[in-house]
Amino acid sequence: MMQYLYRLNYPQNWDKHTPIAIALHGMGTNYNDLQPVLDQLASDQIQLSLQGDQVFQDGYQFFNVNFERGSKKEETVIGTAIENVYSFIQQLLTQKKLTAHPLHYLGFSQGAIIGSGLVVNYPKLFRQVELFSGRLPLFVEQTAQATLGTNLPSPQIFISQGSLDPLFSPEIGRHVHEIIAAHFANVHYHEYQVGHGITPQTLADVQKENSVH
């Protein structure tokens, strides 16, 4: 079994209906990086933060980006990471007797890329998803077009991109939205005057979109 270091935080009051918020960080950080985001978006939820299994700079990453976008190597590298994360989550939830809980996913950068693959490969896995500053690998897009229907009611998906992002341009974010919205009914896309990051307004908009449903 692929092993990831993780943090599991339980709220003061929880039961079998309490959602589990699963957070995956971007390159060069660790499982503490998205804690402020979890504190705002999932303060009353069980929080599971995974840490990438490869050292990168001062932190960690979930996969090595030494590939051409759209290549077979990208599919192998990112596809393996998606399946490793999926298997780890399933086995950990079984081990902790948490399999009955609804799942909430939030990912930033690499975490958002992996999240897009999880949503496409396992469309019934999550109830709520936030993909912050990510992109959609070509093989994930092809899988979506080959396997998913249209107007799928769940999960509710929030996609954000920075208009000043030097890594993933806003056009990339718009493309993620276009493909995901072609298959899922509840998809919201927002752009922010920010680089590669999450703003306070991003989190406020997530809460606003969720309060509507």
Summarize, please.
Helices cover 37% and strands 21% of the residues.
List the helices and strands and how they pair.
Elements: E1 6-9, E2 20-24, H1 35-41, E3 46-50, E4 54-56, E5 59-61, H2 72-95, E6 103-108, H3 110-121, E7 128-132, H4 138-147, E8 156-162, H5 170-181, E9 187-192, H6 200-212
Parallel strand pairs: 2-3, 2-6, 6-7, 7-8, 8-9
Antiparallel strand pairs: 1-3, 4-5
Helix pairs in contact: 2-3, 3-4
Written overview of the protein:
- This protein has 213 residues and is of the alpha/beta class.
- Helix content is 37%, strand content 21%.
- The chain is built from six helices and nine strands.
- The strands form two sheets. Strands 1-3-2-6-7-8-9 form a seven-stranded mixed beta sheet, with helices on both faces. A two-stranded antiparallel sheet has the order 4-5.
- Helix 1 (35-41) links the parallel strand 2 (20-24) and strand 3.
- The longest helix is centred in the middle third of the chain and has 24 residues, at 72-95.
Main sheet overview:
7 strands, mixed
Main sheet: strand order:
1-3-2-6-7-8-9
> In angstroms, what separates the terminal alpha carbons?
37 Å
Order of helices and strands: EEHEEEHEHEHEHEH
The overall strand count is 9
Question: Into which percentage range does the β-strand content fall?
Answer: 15-25%
Categorize the overall geometry. globular
- Coarse structural class: alpha/beta
Query: Low-confidence runs (pLDDT<50, min 5 residues)?
Result: none
Give the count of helical stretches: 6
Rg, rounded, reads: 16 Å
Helix content: 25-40%
What integer is the average pLDDT? Answer: 95
